Amino acid sequence: MKIATYNINGINGRLPVLLRWLAEAEPDVVCLQELKAESARFPEHALLKAGYQAIWKGEKSWNGVAILSKDAIRELRDDLPGEDESFTHSRYIEGFTFGMVIACLYLPNGNPYPGPKFAYKLRWFSRLTAHANTLMNTGLPVMLVGDYNVMPTELDTYKPEKYVNNALFRKEIRAAYADLVSQGWTDAIRKLYPDERIYTFWDYFRNAYGRDAGLRLDHFLLNPLLGGRLSSGGVDKHVRGWEKSSDHAPVWIELADADQAQ
Predict the structure, then answer these.
(1) Is 8 left (phi over 0), alpha (psi -120 to 50) or beta?
(2) DSSP structural state of residue 40
(3) Which pLDDT tens digit goes with each residue over 177-221?
(4) This protein's superkingdom (predicted)?
(5) What are phi and psi of 75, to 5 degrees?
(6) How many other CB atoms sit within 10 Å of the CB of residue 96?
(7) Beta 53-57 vs 65-69: how paired, if at all?
(8) Do the strands 74-77 and 65-69 form a parallel or antiparallel pair, or are they unpaired?
C-alpha cells in the first residue's frame, strides 16, 4: 500500500499538476494540505473521476486539508480536541480508510519568532501531542501525516545556521516534535534514510530548487502497528520542477501487508 502527502499550495490552481501526479504515482491514499479553497470549491468530481473518494475541510484563501483514498473513507473528526482562543483554522482532518486511522495535518508556520504566531504554533503542537497520545492508545493502526512546518534535525535543512531563529527550526519546536515522536511514533522517512539529507520543500525564490537548497517539512509518523510494516519511501522531487508546481514535492511511503510484516 502506498500513502503520500502533498502540500498542494492551492488545489484548484494546481489541479492539473495534482491529477498528472496521481496518474503517474498511483498512491492509494493522499493527504493534501494548503487547499486554499472554501469547502464548497473542493474539486470532488474531478478527483472521483481520477478514482479517489475524499474528505476535506476548506478555508477561504488559506490552509485547508483533505484525505483522498481509493477505498471508502469515513471522517472521524475535522479538528483537534480543544479550542484556541486566538485562531481558528482548517488544519486537521482525521479519517478511517483501508483499516487505518489517518490524520492529515498542516501545522502552523509560526513566523515571525518571537510573536503571537509562534505562541499559537506551540499551543497547536500541544493539542496535537495530547490527541496523538490518545490515538496511540486506541490499539488501531494510526499515522499522523502532513506538513509539520518543522525541520527536526540539522539534516533536514540545507543551511542550519540560517534558520536558528526561524519558527520552523527553533529549539522549542524541535523539542516539541521530539516529544511527540517519543510517544512511540516512527518518523518514516528518517527511519528509511537515517543519515541522508532529504528535502520536501524548495522556495520559489533564489533558484532554491535548482540549487537543491531545500527543507524537510513533510513527515509521516507511524504508530508501532504501522511502523513494523514500513517497507520503502521517498520524495517525488521531479514534480517540484513541473510548470506551475507547488513549492513542496509529494512524499510517499509504502507499507507491507500486515501478514507480511516482519
Answers:
(1) alpha
(2) G
(3) 999 999 999 999 999 999 999 999 999 999 999 999 999 999 999
(4) Bacteria
(5) -75, 135
(6) 17
(7) antiparallel
(8) unpaired
- CA distances for 197 relative to 151, 164, 242, angstroms: 11, 18, 22
Q: Structure pTM?
A: 0.97
% of the chain exceeding 70 in pLDDT: 98
Tell how many helices (H) and how many strands (E) occur in the chain.
8, 14
Q: Which residue has the cell 527511519?
A: 191
Asked whether 93 and 80 are in contact (CB, 8 A), the reply is no
Which residue range(s) make up the domain with 79?
2-260
Quick one: pLDDT band at residue 258, thresholds 50, 70, 90?
Answer: confident
Say which residues have a Cβ less than 8 Å from residue 140's Cβ, sequence separation at least 6. 100, 101, 225
All residues at 6 or more sequence positions from 249 whose CB lies less than 8 Å from its CB, including other chains? 6, 200, 201, 202, 235, 236, 237, 238, 239, 240
C-alpha cell at 37: 479553497
Give me 56's grid cell. 476535506
Cα distance between residue 160 and residue 43, in whole Å? 38
What are 84's strand-pairing partners? none
**Other CB atoms closer than 10 Å to residue 28's CB: what's the count?**
18
* Pairing status of strand 2-7 against strand 251-255: antiparallel
CATH of the domain at 118: 3.60.10.10
**Which triple of cell numbers denotes residue 136?**
496511540
Report pLDDT for 85: 83
Q: For residues 216 and 198, give the distance between their C-alpha atoms in angstroms, rounded to a whole number.
A: 6
* Residue 259 in this model has a pLDDT that exceeds 80: no
CA-CA distance, 215 to 168, in Å (whole number)? Answer: 10
pLDDT digits (tens, 9 = 90+) for 44-76: 999 999 999 999 999 999 999 999 999 999 999
Q: How many domains does the chain divide into?
A: 1
